[in-house]
User: Fold these one by one.
Assistant:
Number 1:
Amino acid sequence: MPASPAQTQLQQLLEQWPAGQAGLRRSLLAYREGVLALPGVKEGLLARPGVSYSLRWDLDPRPAGRQRPLFALADVVSLGQEELMLSVCFYEDEVSDPQELGNAIPQGLFQETGYCFDLDGEDPALVAYCLERAAQAHAAAIGARRG
């Protein structure tokens, strides 16, 4: 089965990843693997080379009454020639942040308040924490509450 355009674009991103940021690449792949392990998840990718690559996860099928186009996303953002950062985001009302590691982004997620966690390297503890948030958002999406 041939790779989808999104899979091809993701593979290109991973192949061109700056060598000095291998830890951030591992963080992205660990997070992605964890989200894809949740039941009923489909993945999409919006590639804007030189600006960002936005991995987006939703439920397939989307529950009745659910209008939001995703429950989690991870933006790989270009900060320059050889520098990237990873921002993992959710809808603010679908996650908690007991350790206060993230930031609310008003109107930052499809004109709703997003809640994002930024990574700039390998951080297994923060990846695990973000996966806990992904599980919360996934459960909220399944319940189709608040949109």
Note: The longest helix spans residues 124-143.
Number 2:
Amino acid sequence: MMLITYILYLHASAWLTFWVGHSLHKNGRYFLVEAFADERIADAINKLLLVGFYLVNFAYVLFVLKEKQDIVGMAGVIEVLSTKVGLIAFTLAVMHFFNLFLFATFRQYRMGALKHKLLNTIFEKLSSKGII
């Protein structure tokens, strides 16, 4: 049962990772173009985000691959798979919302609408050094 669980887990995780990555890459471009006001930079960042997304997610998938307890029957397979794939989905969601927060904050800074003093200071220092 362990081998079947591993194969199903890797397949489901890979499918979920590629589907979410493709969706974010395709639909996130518009958001990045709006945030950065430069299509070339937005496209480059979008590609880098996709590569980073895949690397982080596959590392996490492999990190949690090993199951410490014996899996008994199909019910056990389903329980382990739902837990592991659920953790992957949750991790993807956290990464996605963190990125949305960062880019929305950057967009507000770029438009002069960012009201948070600490974030303004951080963006001003990054901007003065030519990083953004």
Note: The mean pLDDT is 85.
